[in-house]
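Journal club prep — side note

Before the paper discussion, L.F. wants everyone to see what a predicted structure for a comparable chain looks like in token form. Sequence:
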Amino acid sequence: MAALYYYGFVIHRRTLGRTGFPISEVGFGAWGIGGNQWRGHSEDEARAALRRALELGVNFIDTALAYNEGHSERIIGETLRETGAQAYVATKVPPKNRIWPAQPGIGIKEVFPYDYVIRCTETSLGNLGVETLDLQQFHVWNPEWLDREDWRRAIEDTKKAGKVRFWGISINDHQPDSALDAIRTGLIDTVQVIYNIFDQTPEQRLFPLCQERNVGVLARCPLDEGALTGAITPETEFDPGEFRAFYFRGDRKRQVFERVQALIADLEAAGLDRPLAETALRFCLSHPAVSTVIPGMRRVRNVESNAAVSDAGPLPASVLEVLRRHVWNKNFYS
């Protein structure tokens, strides 16, 4: 594990599995900066946040063609060219039928037909302004597709053509085991999976297999779309057109608030009086299978606080034991 010093704190690096990429253990989740589904910020703020992250030593960015129809990719490409910064960029092929997550019984021809995967890859290359993608990912996954040729041939041909260096899967919401057999094919270099204090299920089977096969792990939703920042209360309001208005609909804000208050009380009793968001990110980074954690960051202040978490190191075993008691079996995406 390498480390670089930036502005008074250390940015640690971890190797992204067999890709060999030395990436910052706090990466930049770029869904929010694309706009549309995430609101309440300006594009100037989003661009400033990305520039600040690069300045602080964050060198891994996760985006997707579906993030406002490629706008997130275009912002990233423009910012990297403007700043001259070096970063590893991961993007994703959206499902052709635009259904998240992948549904049982729907064949790969409706989701990732070969020609469509190639076209999406070319579009992302153009949006980012590069000749080769560092990491391309399938944005959903269905284990029923395992023996189909489309995805296998797309991986082999894009690598052979120099269009993609490595391929991964962004695993369906709260379904970490759905990618196990795909990993065993040897074709998948990385996985992106929901992993946070509330959902610790990847630790059971996914993480051990990734460690065995040297597959990189991108821990997404470490803050559970803001729930694990401690900022959500029953009175919190979102723009009706924003994703979080759907995610926290009904009485879900109350549920989150009650769970989080209990969590904070337990942490304080254990002697950890730190911001909850910091603890949530450190929880993810405490597992050795995790290559990087990718919180969304749309404002400079969030970038600065999240990047500094790398310097804090893993959580003590006693605190991790407290967090084990706060697993919450839910799926707010459904």
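L.F.'s comment for the group: The domain at 3-324 is CATH 3.20.20.100 (TIM Barrel). Keep this in mind when we get to the figures.
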